[in-house]
Sequence to fold (212 residues):
Amino acid sequence: MNSKFTDCLEKAKLNKNESSISRAEKTLLNENEAKRVFSRVKTDLLKLEEWNKNAALSSYKIFDENGNELTDEDINIGVFERIRLKGSGKFDWVKVVDIFEKEDEFVITVKPTFDPTDEKTDRNLTSHFFTEAATNNFCLSRNFKTVKFYVIGLNEKRNTQETENTLETIRNLAVNLNTYLGIQNSEWETFAHNFLESAAEIERENTLKDKG
Fold:
């Protein structure tokens, strides 16, 4: 059975030096509750306000390819996402390149891209700490009573040549890679944990209301 989650996980384990795995898991009281939590997180992952609400050190905005901010749209394939990770020294830009969905599995894949808000930018150059070859995969799955949310980074090579901005290149060279990865992994684990806990809390509240 095709599983993008499993495929990303296997690739990360095979190439540990250029991959990262951040994870959170939640085991619910029963399978029906797990299904509801999975469904809620899947829906929330397409809402930008939920990304900002569940983040700890990061903030997010989405834009179209012409650099126009999108304030009333869900996250979908083709949108550009501006990420500000505290301590990173600048904005990093990614583009949503794939949304994979099947029963009990949901994966959003983004990859580094150019800054669409800069009219003078060379669109062949990447405005991100990692090169264009990298991907970040937000992987949600359910197995019986357990819901898993992993953020899996693949091909994570530091970008020291593809940037157009000299200061950005200096930033990428100066930032300690292990420090950056440590901050990133901690942030993604908090992000994933908060999504699961928030959804589980809402389901608990709804169950209590139904019983009441």
The chain has five helices and seven strands.
